Amino acid sequence: SRQLLKSISSSARLFSNHRTQNQTRGYKVAVLGAAGGIGQPCGLLMKMNPLVTELRLYDIAGTPGVAADVSHINTKAQVKGYSQADDGEDGLKNALKDCDLVIIPAGVPRKPGMTRDDLFKINAGIVKGLVEACAENCPKAMLNIISNPVNSTVPIAAETLKQKGVYDKKKLFGVTTLDVVRAKTFYAEKKGLETAKVDVPVIGGHAGVTILPLFSQATPKAALTDDEIDALTKRTQDGGTEVVAAKAGKGSATLSMAYAGALFGDACLRAKNGEAGVVECTYVESDVVPGVEFFATKVSLGREGVEKIHGTGALTAYEQAGLDGMMSELKDSIQKGLDFAKGA
Ligand code: NAI
């Protein structure tokens, strides 16, 4: 677990020394869907983040127990639980009031045989409702959207914030970090590299073929045959489905997702805190690829959120074919989200 903590904090200095702590501001962070499979471990990991002073855990029900439990951990963040069941409408309001960062893993996960898009019917409305509440109670917060289908829920969130007159494209992020985490793990395993030192950018979106790992840009460099690249690409794209199948009806990735969500949340907080050079792959409003309004590439994060969206970098013919091949699905998923939010 020491190793886990070390890697969560790679540059986050999870157990920072006094000097660092004194220099940092503290932030209010809410997790919505905090009693769920992702929400619980994600809350746990955020409790360990030294940049968090207040951790608000919200769900429809069950959060008082989760919050009481997490609150006993001897780190500085103050933990409070809020739920619809216990606090009615005020629960969500109070959980969000003046938050700096809101992490949203609320909604149903996949079962075997389902695509992420099959979740749209239920999760689209959940995300819309939660983002409306964010617009009303913490309009300046950075929003990290984990709820699937991310390719559509981020456009839903953007449109909802626009309707509320508070949209800031620099502060809305689709969390694709798990795809990056998977690509790194699979690449390191395949090539016998030290996992913690590996980097692999992943671009596009967060579903099937829209997930495009760029092994040509992986570091450290290792020779890969075409077959190896194809196998690693497919395994990254199907990583979620691998977990769904293994859990056999009991849900999708929760622990690795909580880790990835905590990593990305930490990156947002470090950037907000003024740390330079924070770069993560994330799905944001972007004009990097003509024809799609939202796209994941490497993004530099700063105090106000997105500071610079990086391009895709040079693509191999295989990667270019992957990019071309995802366009119609990504476009459709974005449009579906926008239409839903517009009530069309
Ligand atoms: P879960 O079912 O274990 O937990 C979801 C939680 O959301 C439940 O506790 C539920 O009560 C809560 N919830 C539902 N509606 C809510 C509302 N209106 N307000 C507050 N809370 C609400 O599901 P799990 O496994 O935690 O997955 C959550 C979501 O994350 C799913 O949509 C899943 O597809 C997505 N996911 C995304 C990944 C990514 O890479 N972005 C990876 C894995 C899962």
Write a compact overview of the structure shown.
Its EC number is 1.1.1.37. The protein has about 350 residues and is an alpha/beta fold. The protein is about 45% helix and about 15% strand.
Describe this structure in words.
- By secondary structure, the protein is an alpha/beta fold.
- It contains 13 helices and 11 strands.
- The strands form 3 sheets. It has a 6-stranded parallel β-sheet with strand order 3-2-1-4-5-6, sandwiched between helices. Strands 9-10-11 form a 3-stranded antiparallel β-sheet.
- Helices cover 45% and strands 17% of the residues.
- Helix 9 runs antiparallel to helix 10 (226-237).
- It is globular.
- Bound molecules: 1,4-dihydronicotinamide adenine dinucleotide (NAI).
- 1,4-dihydronicotinamide adenine dinucleotide (NAI) binds next to strand 2 and helix 7.
